[in-house]
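User: I've been trying to design a sequence by hand for this structure and keep getting stuck. Would you show me what you'd pick, starting by listing the structure so we're on the same page?

Assistant: Good idea, let's start from the same input. This is the structure you sent:
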């Protein structure tokens, strides 16, 4: 059986995204694939609700039969930490060809190596590189895993820079002995929020088409800053959320004539019947918020493009990116899956 440990240098680097892509690849190749994410007290990213959303998502997309508390056990006592992790791992690894472990990030720097050693796991390190090449820290950490290291993935690289970054980083990796398994471009679909997540963030109420709350919002448009916006204006962006004052039905109707994921009406003013009827017919959710337009837009800008990878609608796009940019041959060889 193969064991793969996916870790990162920082929070939000894309561990769950990579785990999901690798899991679906292995599943589609006929491999019985498991998932394991030990929640270790004192680590980064502890679930605030008591339920780990990443575990719920991976359990669903990999069709796992194990209970969530086995997939994502909470380990509070650091005494005998590795033994506790191994015992929990044994419960989810039975009858599996491969188990993917999503590790932590940040503090507890020694834990990933100890777990990799105990489980004889191959390690992939994820590093987010939105603006520049990773520093020497990546290579220092990577070398620390020794023979357990499979390689590194650079994530969220600006699309126009992917080829150049791969060439530059490959030259460095040759010198320090770290294989670069993939350079992934930044992608709006993978970072998109759902309508429901957006409504929760702005503390709004969905008053139309709540069944569309899982639709992905990739961009934002503001209707209040232009004098007479029509469909031509709103057609400049697709898959968008439109923020507009509640007392401007003309703007609302114009937005509904284009590819709009949701309308966000500010000021607490509900839509007039003709807008509500049009939104219902087109299946466009309307989110009603009490705050003013500027405050609402500023709030959305803080979170847009920072969505977690926990929607199945993102999987086709992820699959396409990984097929183009990830070295699956190295993965199969490293896990002993090459026949």
């Amino acid at each position: 059986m193969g064991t793969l440990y996916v870790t990162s240098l920082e929070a939000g680097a894309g561990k769950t995204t990579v785990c999901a892509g690798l899991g679906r690849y292995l599943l589609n190749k006929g491999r019985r694939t498991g998932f394991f994410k030990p929640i270790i007290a004192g680590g980064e990213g502890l679930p605030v609700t008591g339920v780990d959303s990443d575990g719920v998502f991976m359990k669903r997309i990999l069709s796992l039969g194990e209970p969530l508390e086995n997939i994502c056990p909470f380990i509070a006592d650091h005494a005998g930490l590795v033994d506790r992790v191994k015992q929990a791992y044994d419960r989810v690894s039975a009858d599996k060809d491969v188990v993917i472990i999503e590790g932590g990030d940040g503090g507890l720097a020694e834990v990933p190596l100890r777990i990799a050693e105990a489980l004889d796991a191959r390690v992939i390190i994820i590093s987010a590189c939105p603006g520049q090449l990773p520093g020497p820290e990546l290579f220092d950490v990577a070398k620390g895993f020794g023979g357990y290291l499979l390689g590194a993935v650079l994530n969220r690289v600006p699309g126009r820079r992917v080829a150049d970054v791969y060439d530059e980083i490959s030259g460095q990796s040759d010198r320090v002995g770290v294989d670069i398994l993939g350079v992934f471009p930044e992608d709006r679909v993978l970072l998109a929020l759902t309508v429901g997540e957006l409504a929760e963030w702005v503390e709004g109420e969905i008053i139309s088409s709540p069944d569309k709350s899982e639709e992905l919002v990739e961009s934002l448009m503001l209707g209040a800053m232009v004098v007479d916006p029509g469909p031509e204006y709103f057609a400049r962006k697709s898959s968008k959320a439109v923020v507009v004052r509640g007392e401007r039905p003309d703007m609302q109707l114009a937005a509904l004539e284009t590819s709009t994921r949701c309308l966000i009406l500010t000021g607490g003013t509900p839509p007039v019947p003709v807008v509500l009827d049009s939104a219902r017919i087109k299946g466009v959710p309307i989110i009603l918020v009490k705050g003013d337009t500027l405050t609402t837009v500023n709030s959305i800008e803080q979170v847009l493009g920072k969505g977690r990878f926990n929607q199945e609608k993102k999987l086709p796009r992820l699959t396409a990116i990984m097929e183009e940019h990830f070295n699956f041959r190295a993965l199969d060889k490293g896990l002993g899956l090459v026949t």
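That's my pick for every position. To get oriented when you compare it with your attempt: The chain has two domains: 2-187+309-334, 193-303. The chain has 15 helices and 15 strands.
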